[in-house]
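Just curious. Invent one:
>
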Amino acid sequence: MSLIRDTYYRFQVLVHEVAKFGIVGAIGFVVQLGVQNGLHPNPKAAIGPTAALVAAYCAATVVTFIGNRYWAFKHRKGKGLKQETITFVLLNGVGIVIQIGLVDAVYYGMDMKSNLAYNGATVVAIGIATLFRLYTYRKFVFLAQPPSSEAEELAVETTGR
């Protein structure tokens, strides 16, 4: 029992971040698929599969930035809103390339143009890009607070500063 408890305490922050990141990502997933399927293959929209994916990705990116910054990673000290936003957008640029590459490979390269194949490729691409984003958001966007040393804690306790 203590092994499970000790393991949980050791990875508590990671577990909570991944869970919250997953919830935010699920909301972004619904936004992306909703916008994407609303635009393609809607004859009124007259928009291609790649353009629909990009528009939907942009909408989902806004939603996930807000959710990640103000909820999932709110406890992390970043470099400020401007720097976090720039880094987030750049890393999402890589994420969209991953998604476009896979979806276009299926849609155009394999000539699988059914809605099932299009959405299936999108789901797989989102999964791959999500692993990339989780790692890079934690590493480069929402930075962890540096751990304080015992000496610093002792100094604060004894001096009050």
